[in-house]
Design a protein that fits this description.
CATH superfamily of the largest domain: Dihydrodipicolinate Reductase, domain 2
Bound molecules: 6-O-phosphono-beta-D-glucopyranose
Distance between the termini: 42 Å
Radius of gyration: 24 Å
Number of domains: 2
Strand content: 15-25%
CATH topology of the largest domain: Dihydrodipicolinate Reductase, domain 2
Strand order of the largest sheet: 16-15-14-13-7-12-11-8-17
Number of strands: 17
Shape: globular
Number of helices: 15
Helix content: 25-40%
CATH architecture of the largest domain: 2-Layer Sandwich
């Protein structure tokens, strides 16, 4: 495949004064500029409802850039070059007339990238406005998550967009796909023949995927309490990781080859019947506790909270993929807010050798593990069994890592933020790292049946202390299968 190049464009950023744009998108664009990746005639147009002087909004954006870009990466000359690309337009996203002004600003730009950092409820109106202003043909649209809160509402959003934009100009973001280490899963699996021969139910006993966060809900009660951890994290980030781990080798690296394989995994996920939910899924909600020596409030004591809420801030579940490769291999997924450390990690547990010849008390040591650390301290380690050294040790076994720590080994100055990669790929027109409509919908379908099931059962989430690894039931979930979570603490 010939590498795609970054096309000059006008980037129309809807929701330019919101948290995502100020904290993530403008800093990511600045970094692209700093790396020399933005063509000279790339323009950035911030769009928001706030009226007043554009200059004061641009000053606010500049102020946030200075706050969110690391000091050592703030280069005054780059900053000035970047700010010179920026413009601001106040508009009502639902008012069609306002799009004429946008068309004026876009001028003759051959390509427009319209990034929707707004609630999904206005995506349809924005698309209609862009089309009415005659901009649709040269525009790629970028949709932030969450796209809906269930299958029905996500279809409504997708359909509203599809009325004006074909799938090949629709880019749905799951920012985990922009993380370097997540892309490394593809390299690890398909550039190393070593693993592929082992990557199935004959050799793998089970897989763990953990995405733990120390943060709580960070003032996002309004959104989070309607969503909960299953919709916020499992439906997208964890299922995407699961797909990348479980999918069959694609025939090439094209967006559709990869996405076709991911969809097959989502389709093969076994539903969990309500009567089995008690054994296969744990919902938790944090209560006050301490993280890294700091006392933090419980979920129900967060600012603006509804003290009756039974929204989950933690989910652990046991999923199964019904296909030839994975039959009988449980995938244990776990994610929560207010965990003891920030950690995204996948652990592949290989089966023990078929015939055991060592001392019986060492048996539980046996079994290789491949630990893929996505963040922080990105790296890969393969736990292998060796013999302890020394004349007195006999055939005493020990497990040790073959280790690859990305930042130490490659001495890379910085790991780019996911949004840098994603913005770059949209400007190249590469959909590889974006989620296709059917992926989102199959993911919702699977999550919806879990949510329906637990609503039918009606059990409240189990409390866990902030700073712990979740409710005890999460340990029970995996130990019922004679296993435990791999916590490399
Ligand atoms: C977002 C969720 O998609 O991902 C947040 O809405 C979560 O609740 C965040 O905190 C985690 O992202 P990261 O990159 O910090 O792991």
């Amino acid at each position: 495949m010939t590498p795609l190049s970054v096309e000059p464009c006008t980037l129309a950023l809807f929701g330019a004064l919101g948290d995502l744009a100020l904290r993530k998108l403008f800093p990511a664009l600045y970094q692209l500029d700093r790396a020399g990746l933005l063509p000279a005639d790339t323009r950035i147009l911030g769009l928001a409802r706030d009226g007043g002087e554009p200059a004061s909004h641009l000053a606010l954006i500049a102020e946030h850039l200075r706050r969110h870009v690391a000091e050592r990466e703030l280069e005054e000359s780059v900053l000035q070059r970047f700010l010179a690309r920026l413009d601001y337009l106040s508009m009502e996203f639902g008012r069609r007339e306002d799009y004429a002004a946008l068309a004026d600003k876009a001028g003759q730009a051959e390509r427009i990238v319209a990034f929707f950092a707004t609630p999904a409820s206005v995506y349809g109106a924005i698309c209609a406005g862009l089309a009415e202003a005659g901009l649709a043909e040269r525009t790629r649209v970028v949709l932030e998550k969450p796209i809906g809160h269930d299958l029905g509402s996500s279809r409504e959003v997708n359909d509203a967009v599809a009325r004006f934009f074909p799938e090949d100009r629709t880019y749905r973001i799951d920012h985990y796909l922009g993380k370097d280490t997540v892309q490394n899963l593809i390299a690890l699996r398909f550039a190393n023949s070593l693993f592929e021969t082992q990557w199935n139910q004959n050799h793998i006993s089970h897989v763990e995927i953990t995405v733990a966060e120390t943060v709580g809900i960070e003032g996002r009660w309004g959104y989070f309490d309607q969503a909960g951890q299953l919709r916020d994290m499992i439906q997208n980030h964890l299922l995407q990781l699961l797909c990348l781990i479980a999918m069959d080798p694609p025939s090439d690296l094209s967006a559709d080859s990869i996405r076709d394989e991911k969809v097959k995994v989502l389709k093969a996920l076994a539903p969990i019947a309500p009567e089995h939910l008690g054994q296969q899924l744990v919902r938790g909600q944090y209560v006050a506790g301490s993280i890294l020596g700091r006392q933090v409030p419980g979920y129900l004591e967060e600012e603006n909270s509804n003290t009756q809420s039974d929204t989950e801030t933690f989910v652990a579940l046991r999923a199964e993929i019904c296909n030839w490769r994975w039959a009988g291999v449980p995938f244990y997924l776990r994610t929560g807010k207010r965990m003891p450390q920030k950690l995204s990690q996948i652990v592949i547990h290989f089966k023990a050798p078929p015939h055991y010849i060592f001392a019986p008390e060492q048996r539980q040591l046996i079994g290789n593990k491949l630990i893929i650390r996505l963040q922080p301290q990105e790296g890969i380690s393969l736990l292998v069994m060796t013999k302890d050294q020394g004349l007195d040790k006999g055939m005493q076994l020990r497990s040790g890592p073959l280790q690859l720590n990305f930042s130490e080994t490659y001495k890379s100055p910085r790991i780019p933020d996911a949004y840098e990669r994603l913005l770059l790929e949209v400007m190249k027109g590469n959909q590889n790292l974006f989620v296709r409509k059917d992926e989102i919908e199959y993911a919702w379908k699977w999550c919806d049946q879990l949510i329906d099931g637990w609503q039918r059962v009606g059990a409240p989430p189990k409390p866990y202390a902030a700073g712990s690894w979740g409710p005890a039931a999460s340990i029970a979930l995996i130990s019922r299968d004679g296993r435990s979570w791999y916590d490399d603490l």
